[in-house]
Amino acid sequence: MAHNRVLQWATFARSWWIYDAYHQCPFESAKRLCIFLQGQHKPIYHPLSDIGDHVVVINTKDISMKNEYWRKWRFHHHTGYPGGYSQTSAWRLHDLDDTKILHKAVYSRLPGNLLRRRMMRRLHLFPDTEVPDDILQNVTDQIRQVQLIPKPIHKYSKEDIDNFPKLFDWPEEYVIDYSKKKKDEDTEKYF
Amino acid sequence: MSSSSIPSTFLKNVLNNGIGRYVCQLQRITFVFCKQKGDSRGTRDFIENKLLDFTNNNPGVAVYLQPRNNRSPKLVAEYLNGGRESIVTAKMSEDEINKWLEHLRGRSGIKIARIRKPQHTENPSVQGVWHPFTNKDSSLNKTQFPIQELSEVPHETTTTDKLLEIAKKLRETDVSMKE
Hints:
The structure holds two protein chains of two kinds.
Chain A: H1 4-11, E1 16-20, H2 26-38, E2 54-58, H3 69-72, E3 74-78, E4 85-89, H4 90-96, H5 100-109, H6 116-120, E5 123-125, H7 133-136, E6 139-143, H8 158-163, H9 185-188
Parallel strand pairs in A: 1-2, 1-6, 2-5
Antiparallel strand pairs in A: 3-4
Helix pairs in contact in A: 2-5
Chain B: E1 8-9, E2 26-33, H1 41-49, H2 51-57, E3 62-67, E4 74-79, E5 84-88, H3 94-106, E6 114-115, H4 148-151, H5 159-178
Helix pairs in contact in B: 1-3
């Protein structure tokens, strides 16, 4: 074939992906992003060949963690000196740097070989949707999110809320919203 | 000796030889032998008894006889592609030499080397080599990323949806009952 050399370039060309981390679990996301960083989504994948793609991640400040993870998940660090150990909870690390949790999640997910640092350099993390133009114009495809974004109550219309099936009605004096609580004169006099 | 230092090739054939027609690749064979030494005896016997049969059967092969005093006998084969192969036939019997001669006649002239893969093709792919844009929707070329449709998890019918559907039906039947 006449253009074998050019076909080779096309086959091994690096493509750029974008991923929206809004309300996504960082650990589940890392599992998916590693596939693209390593190039496992390509039919030509081989662990020794450096054919990973670039991944641009936006909205890292809006990642979500399940259960009590924001308080209870801890990141460990040791400087190597005696007494150099420290641990930081997830919320605190996120407060210090809102791209750090995803960075650490992906780094620990990647295989510990010589390609790891190089693959990490192809991960571009942005706390919000503001991405420099020279990066965004490279993007050719999007990675699907790992979990459904929960719909908050204020996004539902009044009609939807009223039509939601109920087994019973709350009694009149049951307080759901304390800001709308009526003043009760019987109890008020004791204070 | 490591396997990487042994010469290696891919499986190959000379001009699709044997597919449709066969051209004998052996063009010239030289018998080097000594007239008096004992280790050339098999070679001398071969020349006396069997060589004419070989030449009759293979008119396309030029045969040379080179008597060389006090040297060990050998067969030197030269091929169409310029390849050259020699086999020392010292102390070999008439039949053994015949076997090696047949071996040389059947060869393509390509040097024997470690073959990397048991199969080979000159046309690796009919549909074309894979690249990052094969089987991709061409509308992605004009898409301004990021977009919501490609990002969100596709919605599947949940139990909540089913319950809402049932509740809606019940409400409708309730209304019609009251009427």
